[in-house]
Amino acid sequence: MFIGGEWTQPDGGHYAVVDPATEETVGWAPEASRDQVHAACAAAREAFGSWSRTAPEERAAILARAADVIAGRFVPYAELAQAETGATTGTARAMQVGVGVARFRRYARVESAEWAIPPQINEAGPMGKAGVMGALAVRQPVGVVTCITSYNNPWANPAGKIAPALAMGNTVVVKPAPQDPLSVYRMAEALEAAGLPRGVLSVVSGRSVEVGEAAVDSPDVDMVSFTGSTAVGQRIAEVCGRGMKRQLMELGGKGAAVVLDDADIGSAVAGIGTTFSFYSGQICTAPTRVLAQRGVYDRLVDGLAGYAGRLKVGNPREADTVVGPVISAPHRERVESYVELGRKEGATVVAGGERPPYERGFYVAPTLLADCTNAMRVAREEIFGPVVAVVPFDDEEEGIALANDSDYGLIDYVWSGDVARAFRVARRLRAGGVGVNTVGRNMEAPFGGFKKSGVGRDVGSYALHAYSEVQAIVWPG
User: Fold this and answer.
1) Are residue 220 and residue 261 in the same domain, yes or no?
2) Residue 132: in which H helix or E strand, if any?
3) In which order are the strands placed within the sheet that holds 2-3?
4) Residues 170-227: tens digit of each pLDDT
5) What's this model's pTM, rounded to 2 decimal places?
6) CB neighbour class for 419 (10 Å; exposed up to 12, middle 13-18, buried from 19)
7) Active-site residue among 250, 336, 345, 382?
8) Aldehyde dehydrogenase domain: which residues (predicted)?
9) Catalytic entry in 284, 336, 345, 372
């Protein structure tokens, strides 16, 4: 492990990291003890004072050098990410390591951390004489930040936390997902090579729940940034609440794709179809709950069924593979159990529904469930796999009501040929983001969720706000 600037043997030994496509061992990951996690947090606390006073330009330069180191090792890092996650080659290169590099470069750009507030004229009174009061708002680092990252992207997700947190002058302890922590250790190597001072970043890993708990409950930790399930996020929030720790939570999603009767069906099918192909549906922003107006319902279902049927499922290292495996055997069983549940609830399996015929690898066929209602569990709960549920609706008001009838509210989508109509519907959706005729993202736009999909916003300049406290400085003019 990487603790306080030292590569340290784990107290708990090592465990195997398994390639989801081959079921072979990729490597051996360290299992930290509770004491080692707390030691990492203590090292971060000790390093905070000097790092927080380091000039922003110097911090930015280290991030830029780290980006260069990662870019210089791009292919082996992408191969490792692919082996750990089962991602296709294109995804591992562009969306995992490629986005990781881009995020380090983004936060190597120094932005002003202070802004003037208009002066206020005060009348004479109990607080003193009449006068003009000037004010300045200053972003200050929070302190020690624990970053707990998701398994679906071991490069982009950690980089999206580590880079802005370091840019703001925080010190960081990273607890990567147990399924694929090896890539995060490579990220630590890159930062070490870039000249990051000792103790500013530590990485601790483990399968035991105790490892994550220690990274959250340490008295040295001021903030927890977590990406993962809502259930785990709720438990973390309880601990943070008791210690008054800051939180940034990106939790579950059940993205509603509202397809109106004037939509371009080809565009809708291509966008919604990313649920089948992108990370094999293991992404919280996926449009997994499709709400189709009856005038286009049959065409949309037929289009999605055809799309799913054309996707090659298999070895992610083959150039024409579109759908790789899910992360593990237990997760495959979970996804398959939801498909069976959908059948029992009355949904029609239009595409997929059967395990692909491979002897090894945790593969799930892209699956389309039609004739669903919004009350079905397959339409309400996050499956986190290549499964789409389609629910019909009659008019615009009903579509909006169904979209908002969810515990989640991360990213929703609207397809309509009338842009004004699409924006009208988008503004009424209770979600942190809405895609209009696209599943694409603007990487400077705020990202986060309503309801049980999370707390706070990050990405772009919003991440700098997320990893900072705002201080007001007031003086007489």
Assistant:
1) no
2) strand 131-141
3) 6-7, 2-3, 201-203, 171-175, 144-148, 223-227, 246-250, 454-455
4) 999 999 999 999 999 999 999 999 999 999 999 999 999 999 999 999 999 999 999 9
5) 0.96
6) exposed
7) 250
8) 7-473
9) 284
Are 157 and 227 a contacting pair, CB within 8 Å?
Answer: yes
Q: Is 250 a catalytic residue?
A: yes
Residue 448 falls within a domain, yes or no?
Answer: no
Q: CB pairs under 8 A, 24+ apart, for 372-377?
A: 372/342, 372/345, 372/347, 373/346, 374/289, 374/291, 374/402, 374/405, 376/342, 376/345, 376/346, 376/347, 377/338, 377/341, 377/345
Q: Which domain holds residue 11?
A: 2-251+453-476
284 given a catalytic annotation = yes
Domains contained in the chain, number: 2
Q: Are residues 42 and 159 in the same domain?
A: yes
Tokens of 53: 């006073």
pLDDT digits (tens, 9 = 90+) for 283-295: 999 999 999 999 9
CB 336 within 8 A of CB 365: no
Could you tell me the two tokens for 186? Answer: 């490579």
Query: Per-residue confidence at 129, pLDDT binned at 50, 70, 90?
Result: confident
> According to DSSP H, which parts of 358-474 are helical?
377-380, 396-404, 419-426, 461-466
Dmax (CA) of the chain? 83
Give percent of the chain with pLDDT exceeding 90: 96
